[in-house]
Amino acid sequence: MAHILKDLFYAVVDLVYPRYCLSCYKSLRTTKDFYLCAECISRIDYINQANTCPKCGMDMGPYTGGHIVCEECHRHPPRFTRAFAVARYDGIMRNVILEFKYRYGKVLTRPLGGLMVDAFNKTANGLKEKIDLVIPVPMHRSKLKKRGFNQSELLARYIAGSLGIGCSVGNLAKVRPSADQAGLDAAARRENLKDAFAVTKPDEVKDKTILLIDDVLTTGTTASEVARTVKRVGAKEVYVLVLARGG
Question: Is this structure's pTM higher than 0.70?
Answer without folding.
Answer: yes
